[in-house]
Amino acid sequence: MRMVVLENSPNAKMNKSVLNRFLALPQPEDKVQAMYVWIDGTGEGLRAKTRTLDFIPTSITELPIWNYDGSSTMQSEGVNSDTYLYPVAMYRDPFRLGNNKLVMCDTYKYNKKPTATNHRHSCLEAMQKAADQKPWFGIEQEYTLLDMEGRPFGWPRNGYPGPQGPYYCGVGANKVYGRDIVESHYRACLYAGINISGSNAEVMPSQWEFQVGPCEGISIGDELWMARFILHRVAEEFGVCVTLDPKPMPGDWNGAGAHCNFSTKEMREDNGIIHIENAIDKMSKQHLRHIKAYDPNQGRDNERRLTGRHETSSIHDFSAGVANRGASVRIPRQCAEDKKGYLEDRRPSSNCDPYSVTEALVRTVCLNE
Ligand code: ADP
Ligand code: MN
Ligand code: MN
Ligand code: MN
Ligand code: MN
């Protein structure tokens, strides 16, 4: 099966030892490649392009504003298509090494107003208003590997793998598919300077998870988006695709989410459980508003996943409980015992925009909006 997949992937077939000859060429010391990364008009897709800098940047403020053709990314009309890239966060480039950088950007229209899929702009405003409450986030990014035909990677061409059960956190050639990608991605994120905190194989075969966090404020969105970019880029070299679709296989197969773990300074202090319960109470009154913010299509993507089965709650109801993986919001058992810590919002879809998710949480819980 694997051979079939690689045959179909032009990228995987390329001879990487030739690439390595050129990547090994000495790079002029005063020339840095900066790859600018941004979210396109779908609110899910990522785009990137590179420019050479004549200096080694040490802070994000030194990076120039740039632009691109927004009409090719579903972000503008052809007649007024120049769209601006504002650098917001900088990471070490795990593909080009050296002083080269990956640069997360947000996007602005010709009139300097944020584009329709720039959800960072308003998220940052909320994070700044709530900064004294020190909001922390940890996101569990689930995803599925697909072959070039769009089948889950490693699944039999005709038919299905055995039912779910042996795959979650599994080991062995008949239990997990694509670990090379997972391991490469983990190291690449660590190298880049992303606060990746773990990874595991998921319940459906060829589905995986990595976690980013805890991160304070706006940085969770920046880091998760760049971790997604690195994942697509690593998988590309293996000739494998990554989907963040929340229900890639209909039927008796788990969907994919992006559980958002959230705390404020008060929740982390002794007896913070009172503040956790208070937050859950506020969230219960804003269920619909949160569902709309938790996938890029106002809840329509999550409808296929939040069925009340396969370790999810129903999209129609809000529920909460200690150690309950069938609830909208779970208080982890350890936090209930310690009477402090954080809560886990299990509703966000795997393809959510973390800027929208964390903004909704902060506006509801910290800003009482
Ligand atoms: P699960 O048991 O739901 O699979 P994981 O171990 O996958 O949980 O993920 C837990 C996440 O919670 C991690 O991303 C971690 O960074 C995050 N986290 C831990 N403590 C806090 C906290 N105080 N506030 C916010 N997030 C936290
Ligand atoms: Mn051109
Ligand atoms: Mn997890
Ligand atoms: Mn999981
Ligand atoms: Mn979880």
Description:
Residues 30-112 form the GS beta-grasp domain. Keywords: ATP-binding, Cytoplasm, Ligase, Nucleotide-binding. Residues 119-369 form the GS catalytic domain. The chain is built from twelve helices and 13 strands. The chain is α+β, with helices and mostly antiparallel strands and 369 residues long. The strands form two sheets. Strands 6, 7, 8, 9, 10, 11, 12 and 13 form an eight-stranded mixed beta sheet that branches. The mean pLDDT is 95. Bound molecules: adenosine-5'-diphosphate (ADP) and manganese (II) ion (4 copies). The site of one manganese (II) ion has 4 residues, from strand 6.
Number of strands: 13
Low-confidence parts, pLDDT < 50 over ≥5 residues?
none
Helix content: 25-40%
Cα shape: globular
What is the C-alpha radius of gyration, as a whole number of Å?
Answer: 21 Å
DSSP helical segment count:
12
Beta-strand percent range: 15-25%
Order of helices and strands: HHHEEEEEHEHEEHEEHHHHEEHEH
Bound ligands:
adenosine-5'-diphosphate, manganese (II) ion
Global structural class: alpha+beta
Give the rounded overall mean pLDDT. Answer: 95
InterPro entries: Gln_synt_N, Gln_synt_N_sf, Gln_synth/guanido_kin_cat_dom, Gln_synth_cat_dom, Gln_synth_gly_rich_site, Gln_synth_N_conserv_site, Glutamine_Synthetase
Organism: Nezara viridula (Southern green stink bug)
Family: Belongs to the glutamine synthetase family.
Biased composition (Basic and acidic residues): 298-314
